[in-house]
Amino acid sequence: MSDKPTVLEQYDRALIVTMNQLSNRNALDGAMKDALFEAAQLFCSDAALHCLVITGTDNIFCAGGDLRNMSGDRRTVAVRERMARTHRITKLLSSCEKPVITAVNGAAVGAGLSLALLGDIIVAADDAFFVSGFSKVGVFPDGGIVYNLPRAVGLVRAKDILLTNRRIDAHEALAIGLVSRVLPKMQFNASVRELATQIANGPAISLGLTKNLLNASHRDNLDDFLTKESLAQAVVFGTDDFAEGNLAFAEKREPKFSGK
Question: Which of 76, 177, 181, 211 has the highest CB neighbour count under 10 A?
């Protein structure tokens, strides 16, 4: 593959986005941020795409922010502009009512760890590892990591990870809830595609509402949440996928969901 920021591939109903800028270890420079945002926009707006996969190349998922860019223009306005380019990806993937898989094929460092945490499902190759990295270069942890990490691993572990800058291998990441699955390196890409296909061929409206309510659940009291739950169920009961799921159950066969 050529050394361009991302390579996009449609696989069944899934969009696979491979970060492919090995010259700087898939760092989140301006070009990479723009490429990821454009891919996210394509995914969120295309009704034919039901699942997004973000992964890296070789043994690199993402080495974090572009230090050369950081050490350039340090004016407040310039820094905020760079952060805005990061935050638009974070906001779009979090608000999109479609499942996102981050497939961590290798090193996820700094903002690369932040990016990994944007996945609704986070999987790691068995030789992948995670490092906060922010304190090593004296910057504030960004990309939403201070918000997302404690929700994944708990406040105590999040403080330990961010303040000590220690390395976390894939199996520890699984044990503490940083990832949901560890997959063998040799079958990693094939296993990720199988998972993406399974999700992409699921009942899209039901899965999307599930993601939406899960993301908002920590902000709701029980009464507010149950109101949303009843509305979501009313929507899902009116879908073609619910009818197909019911019929498939009665006929003792696998359902063929249309996403409608």
Answer: 211
Q: Residue 122: how many CB atoms within 10 A of its CB?
A: 22
* Other Cβ atoms closer than 10 A to 51: 27
Q: What is the DSSP pairing of strand 107-109 with strand 60-62?
A: parallel
Amino acid of residue 191? S
- 30-87 confidence digits (pLDDT tens): 999 999 999 999 999 999 999 999 999 989 999 987 766 665 677 888 888 888 888 9
Write out pLDDT tens, residues 120-140: 999 999 999 999 988 888 888
Please calculate the CA angle 150-146-18 and round it to the nearest 5 degrees. Answer: 95
CA proximity to 98, closest of 120, 117, 116: 120
Phi-psi label, residue 138: left if phi above 0, alpha if psi -120 to 50, beta otherwise: left
